[in-house]
Queue: 2 jobs
Job 1
Amino acid sequence: MSTVTATRPAKQPRQRKPRAKPARAVGIAVRPSDVNPFFVPRIAEGKKLDYYTAKPIPSDWGTAFEMTKLSSGQEEPYHVGLAGADSTCDCKGLLRWQKCRHVEGLTALAKAGRL
């Protein structure tokens, strides 16, 4: 008597779909005035909402801002320079991923004529 055994195909590892990047929105909560050069941009990314104080600072090239996150702890300010493709920021995001929410947010506001 012969027996027949079914062979199962080898399990293939399941492919994960890449995680969807949360939508980002930027706006200005408090506008600058003639008396006060500061403004307060807000950056929303998914469920995360952050507010910053921003003030223009002198720059030899492009437009520059000093941004400080409004939170309960003392934060170091970020220095953001807007110069098209050569924009800079000294935050960890730009250093690690070559993308920065501060540069992208202020660039979007500048293109919309809101700075």
Job 2
Amino acid sequence: MRVDICASDDFDTIARLLRTIGNLGGRTDGEEWAIGVGLHRFQPSDGEISVFVDAWTVDVAGPDELIHQLLAALSRPE
């Protein structure tokens, strides 16, 4: 499943996305927890979440269940 999350200049949402991935147990593929343009992979215990950032948008992809968990967590107030 692939989902558009936000514009690439929506830094508050991007920070929340990274916190949420971390809360789901996501580990980076050796990168820092800041993301720039490009493809970034995070490995929660039950799959992999790919975060793609280009000049316009940020989107995520991964197994359906994992993306549903991510979206549910993002939709809850912090």
